[in-house]
C-alpha cells in the first residue's frame, strides 16, 4: 500500500505548528512519547464490547489485562472505588452519567456556560439541555466567584434531580463538601466534572471531590496529560445510596448502572489503544515527577495571572487557584474573537470565551481563556510566563498592526525553537 503522503504531510505541518507556537488553550496538553505510541498501536484493531472478563468478542485476553491495569491505576491515582475508563470523551462520560441517573425531562442544575460551565452541563444547544430540563447557577457579578448560599437557594427552589459541580472556565477551587450539603438537602445526585483540574486534584493540590460527590467524571487529556478521552469514577457512594429502582423493580448498584450506560447504553466497542494510553498516562501521573509538574503548573498560572493583573487585565475573580484564567477584555477595547485571531497570527493559541454577564455573542465574546498546562509540559517556568504575558499584551495592544504581529511571531518562534513538546 502506498504511504498517504497527503495526510502525513499535514500531520508534520501540525507537528511544526505545535513545536513553534506557544500553546495557551487551557484544555490542551502534550502527551509523552509512550502515550502516543500506545495510541497508535495494534490495539486499535481489536473489538472488545463489554468489560474485562465479560466480553462479547473472542481474543480479548490481552486487552482485558490492559483495561484492568488502566482501571486499577486510576483507582489508586484518585482514591476511587469504581472506575470506568471506556468513555470516548468527557462528553460521553457525562452522557453516560445522565443516562444512568435521569429520565428525559428530569431537572438538572449546572454551571451556566457563559459563567464558566460546559456545554454538557445543560446548554440548550447540547443534548443535556434538550433532553433534560436545565436550570443554572453562576458567579457573582462583583467578585466573579461562586456564591454557595445562592446555589443552595436555587437548589431549594428548583429541586433538581442532579447537580453538576465543575467547569471549563472557572479559575477558583470548588467546595465539593458544600455542594454535597446542598445536594443532600434536596436529595439530588451530585456529579463533579473535574475535566479541567483533574491533574491538580490527583496530586492533592486542589479540593478532592471523591469523598463528597456521588459520581465524578473527567477528561483524560487536559491537566491529566493523557490521550483524548473520558472516565467515570465513584468514591464512597459506589454502593448506591440513592435507592435507584429500575422499571422492573430491581435495585442495582450505581456502578453497574454506570457501566451499562456506557456500554451498551451509549457506546459500542471501547478504544483499547486509547485505554492503553490512558493506563500509561495514569502510571506517569502516579510518579513524583507528575507532582512536580502539577506544582509547576500552579506556580506558572499564578505568575501569569499576576503579570496580567500588573498590565491592567481583568481576570475574572482576580486570580487563579488552578491552571487557567478567564480574562474580560472589555477595558482593552478588543473582542475575544479579534484577540484570538491576532494571537494566532503571532503563533500564540488561546480561545475566545464568554465572560460572566457578557454583552457579546458566543461567536464574538468579550474574553479569552488562558491556561498553562501545555507550556508547563514544554518546560517553561515562572519567568517565561512574564515573557509570554508581554508578548500577549503586545499583540492585544497592536492587534491590527500586521508588522507587530509578525515581529511577535518571530520572538515566539525563537523562544520555543529548542523546547521539545514533552520535557
Ligand atoms: N466537561 C468539561 C468541564 C470540559 O471542559 C470538557 C471539555 O472541554 C468536557 C466536559 C468535554 O470533553 P470532550 O471534549 O472530551 O467531550
From TrEMBL:
Major location, coarse class?
cytoplasm
Spell out the protein name for this chain.
Serine hydroxymethyltransferase
According to its UniProt record, where is this protein located? Cytoplasm
Quote the function comment for this protein.
Catalyzes the reversible interconversion of serine and glycine with tetrahydrofolate (THF) serving as the one-carbon carrier. This reaction serves as the major source of one-carbon groups required for the biosynthesis of purines, thymidylate, methionine, and other important biomolecules. Also exhibits THF-independent aldolase activity toward beta-hydroxyamino acids, producing glycine and aldehydes, via a retro-aldol mechanism.
**Subunit-structure text:** Homodimer.
Where does the entry annotate site (Plays an important role in substrate specificity)? Answer: 221
The residues forming a coiled coil are: none
Q: Which cofactor does it need?
A: pyridoxal 5'-phosphate
Return the EC number.
2.1.2.1
* Organism, as annotated: Gaetbulibacter aestuarii
Location of the Serine hydroxymethyltransferase-like domain: 2-391
Alphabetized Pfam families for the sequence? SHMT (PF00464)
Protein family? Belongs to the SHMT family.
Supply the gene name: glyA
Q: So what does this thing catalyse?
A: (6R)-5,10-methylene-5,6,7,8-tetrahydrofolate + glycine + H2O = (6S)-5,6,7,8-tetrahydrofolate + L-serine
| InterPro entries, sorted | PyrdxlP-dep_Trfase (IPR015424), PyrdxlP-dep_Trfase_major (IPR015421), PyrdxlP-dep_Trfase_small (IPR015422), Ser_HO-MeTrfase (IPR001085), Ser_HO-MeTrfase-like (IPR049943), Ser_HO-MeTrfase_PLP_BS (IPR019798), SHMT-like_dom (IPR039429)
Q: Does the keyword Ion transport apply?
A: no
Q: Determine if ATP-binding is one of this entry's keywords.
A: no
Alphabetic keyword roster: Amino-acid biosynthesis, Cytoplasm, One-carbon metabolism, Pyridoxal phosphate, Transferase
GO molecular-function term, one example from the UniProt record:
glycine hydroxymethyltransferase activity
* Pathway assignment: Amino-acid biosynthesis; glycine biosynthesis; glycine from L-serine: step 1/1; One-carbon metabolism; tetrahydrofolate interconversion
> Which residues does (6S)-5,6,7,8-tetrahydrofolate bind?
113, 117-119, 361-363
Q: Which residues carry this modification: N6-(pyridoxal phosphate)lysine?
A: 222
